Amino acid sequence: MSEQRRVSRRDALKATGATATFGLAGCLGGGGSEALNVAYMPIYPDMQYFVMEEEGYFGEIDATVEGTEFSSGPDIVKAYASGDIDVAMFGIVPAMIVIDRGIAAQVVAANIQEPMGIIGHEEFTAMWDPENPADSFAQWADEKGRPFEFGTFPQGSVPDILLRYWLSDELGIDPAANENVEITGLGGASATFQGLANGEVDGTSIMEPVPTKIQNAGLPYEFVATSGEFMPGQPAAVTLMTDEVRNSDTGSQFVQQHQRATEFVNDNRETAAEHASTVIGESSLAPETAKQAMDSPLSNFITDPHAIEGGTEAFAQYAADLGKTDAELTTEEIFDYSLYDGL
């Protein structure tokens, strides 16, 4: 292992006040030196990154881990295409986009399963009839004089695809054809929360900690369904790794520490939540909110990539139908189970 003191990219950016930049020299994916460039997002489903960072697990990897925070999956896809990233912890759909573009990388671990909730205004949940869902949306439109509007992440994102799957495959409602339902793409978790708080949308498809923040703010929204009820093994955030790293000792070491972080999360829920708040920032995720979110039915942290295989097949179909990928990827193209199976 390198004798160099590990200084994460996040630390460097804090010190300089700079925004994330790329063109890093010496990453494993670009030159075979001892640096491992890891992309992550300040989202709850990247919990393993926060734990590995704060518990010092990266120090067990024979490389200097440099983490870079990104605000969106598409930004990570661009960085991956430029060869600046070795490992990315982000959504299954942008991971598919990276693979579809011919970049030599595969998913080696899941970060979480079944993390999404379908949420609606309490006036809608009062009229909700799961046996006649189309009638419920029609009743809302009749009483409000407008369609029920879902606001979530942009089209093709994990929350968007999960919502479309629920409407189409579970309820038999085509959101493109049903005049009583609309889906509006918003700018992410913060924009979705603000849209709900301002009454600009009527419901959402979203992950923690947004449902907990909604509850704490006393906003009039409730769960209509959770993804575990209709898509067992629903995928979301995953860990994507370049072939060069996958085929090195560093790859297996990273997955080993990922699994160790998952076990830590499941055994030390409050401490893990504090780590998430520290890395994301207390102004964005207060420690108490992070701890409360751990009790949510959406907080199901895992490492085993086999657990999300079934749901990934459905997401691959939607990603292709929505034009996010040129072709529907197979699970063999998406996953490399060998590193997890070798633990």
TrEMBL record:
InterPro entries the record matches: TAT_signal
Domain of life: Archaea
Pfam annotation, one family: NMT1_2
Protein name per Swiss-Prot or TrEMBL: ABC transporter substrate-binding protein
The species this protein was found in: Halolamina litorea
Taxonomic placement: Archaea, Methanobacteriati, Methanobacteriota, Stenosarchaea group, Halobacteria
